[in-house]
């Protein structure tokens, strides 16, 4: 019997499972950072996407089919694996879902790669320019040390949204229905983002649908990432400053986390010839860049914590809401 005005013991216990899933994903990120490439599901998916990156007689049609079918394929594969594991034992379901969320997210690797670029920018600029390829697709051959650091900081902010907040939010929203649904949603978001990163360029006509889908998918996560950065820095006013600059980049979403981080560390972040954020500031120093990366790391941990809390609470309350309706 349920306690008056309360929830059942079973519902409360069920809420532990999605929270444990997120906790496992965070623990794996902290301990491992990334799976080996040969075992990484995102790398497998990237190999599949690469097969479609060629000239087509009807590029718009093919691009739309790819944008719809490939993320659904990734989500279905993950849902099947987690569903089968859950049927065997709930603990196996948590383990499978945790692995799926871990594969769909990246925090420690992002922070460490950005920190390596920043460190090299002070001691060995050519190496810093070379390592920037890990984070950003821009041509770094003529970038100054400050511009290299700016690119690293910008990429850390943007990838916080792509690589952590978006898949975690998707998991949190769908996990109350089942761990398989939550893990599949995280995989779908990661697949959409991977398609955009590989095909979503202005000169790739079969990538237009992927780019537009990513724009829609990332609208909320990008703005949520800005809020998390402001919380991580304990500077809510940074969001007000970010509003003035967030539309400068051509992307409808990436400007929000980047502009917020520019305000948090009071530095100019600039992609030469494309956009400038916080134009009144100076390009980030090594110390400022390191501070920015720390803020991104804290915001990423907050994303995991909030996702686990949201998924757990929603799982507990969902049966009560359904019964009330």
Automatic annotation (TrEMBL):
Q: Where exactly are the transmembrane stretches of this chain? A: 6-28, 61-85, 91-110, 168-189, 295-318
Q: Coiled-coil segments, which residues?
A: none
Indicate the principal place this protein occupies in or around the cell. Answer: membrane
InterPro entries in UniProt: Cobalamin_biosynth_CobD/CbiB (IPR004485)
Q: Which GO terms describe its biological process?
A: cobalamin biosynthetic process
GO cellular component annotations of the record:
plasma membrane
Q: In which pathway does it act?
A: Cofactor biosynthesis; adenosylcobalamin biosynthesis
Stated name of the protein: Probable cobalamin biosynthesis protein CobD
According to its UniProt entry, this protein's organism is Halorussus aquaticus
Annotated gene: cbiB
